[in-house]
Specification:
Distance between the termini: 51 Å
Bound molecules: zinc ion
CATH class of the largest domain: Mainly Alpha
Shape: globular
Order of helices and strands: HHHHHHHHHHHEEEEEEEEEEEEE
Length: 421
């Protein structure tokens, strides 16, 4: 293990190039273990190689020339080592990379090239695992120089590079009983849903980084592993979802209940493009109705007190778990998989008590063009907005004050939903 790490230090162009080492194998094996029997049979001899070899392809592109092509993109001919397979950049870019390699794997599977498919799947495993690694969670600070300024090391870890110790350990990952989720019935849908799944993995991994650092400082190796396993377990679930979905797509075999759940998707918890590096909700400050930021699932009274999302309907007031509250003049933009969904619906309205004196224009834009707009007063019932998004790749929600009492513009987008037909 050490030899491999040393070798990658010598040949790789960037000092932060290593991801999970041994854990890549452990996470991949844990994920493959929960695939249904027919999928394991479909992979045959390649199943074991995925965990033993292929999940390391993107790290070994200089030493393993035979397999380097499986971690390359036609659109980036000069790049042998694709940094984006190890570190997330921004949504549109890594969304395309996820889509590209998923398409490669599915196409190979459909053409009966199982070995090729498994190698591309290995590249995808690696990318998902690196994105969900506790060492890859702080954009631009992979050696934790900045984090160590915030969290000064004990004598034990003084002057030590933190990347390797934070993510590497000798552990097995197992997720018995986990049922992998079908993420789509075509590549565009599956890659887009997988990206949102990975976002959950990244945020989960971020919650492990500091506890791992503190455990290192304190010289508590069991605590290090405990938190590493929190990240690795989540990663195994994401990898299981991805592998399961690719094999369903490759074999064109979908279980009916799973397929039905994909008919529509609520996007109120998804990360918008404005939240660069997933810094949601902090990137979109607004000052009206109060100094605040968009929130998923709650609305902030006075800019500070979280309350349930609530709207007035014809049938009475109703609370909503999936939705977004936002301020005036700050758009929220969501990447859509083009051609997958036909319609977008959302309940627009003002919070019945907080927003009683407000008046807000709700606008839905698609690729810069207005699709739908309404003006609502706080005393009116919420309204269902609906638009055709079949040709839209960026969906934008925008609020504009249309009243005098701007402090009452408590606007809510409830149950924003993409529907296939
Ligand atoms: Zn890596």
């Amino acid at each position: 293990m050490k030899a491999r790490l040393l070798a990658s230090l010598i040949v790789l162009p960037c000092s932060f190039a290593f991801g999970w080492g041994q854990p890549h194998h452990a996470i991949t094996r844990g994920a493959l273990d929960v695939l249904p029997a027919w999928q394991k049979n479909l992979l045959g001899d390649e199943l074991k190689k995925l965990g033993d070899l292929y999940c390391m392809i993107p790290d070994n592109v200089f030493s393993d020339k035979e397999n380097a092509a499986y971690a390359k993109m036609e659109s980036r001919p000069g790049e042998v080592y694709l940094q984006i397979l190890h570190l997330p950049t921004q949504q549109p870019e890594y969304h395309e990379v996820i889509r590209y390699f998923m398409d490669k794997a599915v196409t190979a599977m459909r053409e009966g090239r199982t070995t090729d498919a498994a190698k591309f799947m290995g590249t995808i495993c690696h990318q998902l695992e690196d994105y969900g690694s506790p060492s890859h969670t702080v954009p631009g600070d992979n050696q934790f120089t900045l984090l160590q300024q915030f969290l000064p090391p004990s004598e034990l870890m003084n002057d030590k590079l933190m990347h390797g110790p934070i993510e590497n350990g000798d552990f097995t990952v197992s997720i018995p009983g986990y049922q992998p989720i079908l993420l789509g019935t075509n590549v565009d849908e599956a890659a887009w849903r997988l990206m949102h799944r990975v976002h959950e993995g990244i945020l989960n991994a971020r919650s492990t980084t500091i506890p791992i650092m503190q455990a290192h400082y304190a010289g508590e190796p069991e605590t290090v592993v405990k938190h590493q396993l929190r990240a690795a377990t989540m990663d195994a679930k994401v990898v299981a979802d991805a592998m399961h979905t690719i094999l369903c797509l490759g074999a064109n075999k979908f279980e009916e209940p799973a397929r039905n759940t994909l008919q529509q998707v609520r996007i109120g918890t998804f990360i918008p493009l404005e939240a660069t590096s997933l810094y949601y909700p902090q990137t979109q400050f607004f000052s009206s109705p109060h100094w605040g930021h968009p929130r998923s699932g709650v609305i902030l009274a006075g800019g500070s007190q979280a309350m349930p999302l609530k709207l007035r309907l014809e049938s009475g007031d109703k609370e909503f778990a999936n939705g977004i509250s936002a301020g005036m003049g700050k758009p929220l933009t969501f990447l859509l998989p083009k051609g997958v969904y036909a319609r977008f619906t959302v309940l627009a309205g003002l919070h019945p008590e907080l927003g009683a004196k407000g008046r807000v224009e709700f606008t839905i834009n698609g690729d810069g063009k207005q699709l739908s707009t309404i003006i609502l007063k706080g005393t009116e019932s919420a309204r269902l907005m609906e638009c055709d998004v079949s040709q839209v790749s960026e969906l934008q929600l925008l609020l504009t004050s249309r009243g005098l009492d701007t402090k009452s513009n408590y606007a809510i987008w409830a149950e924003p939903t993409l529907i296939k037909k």
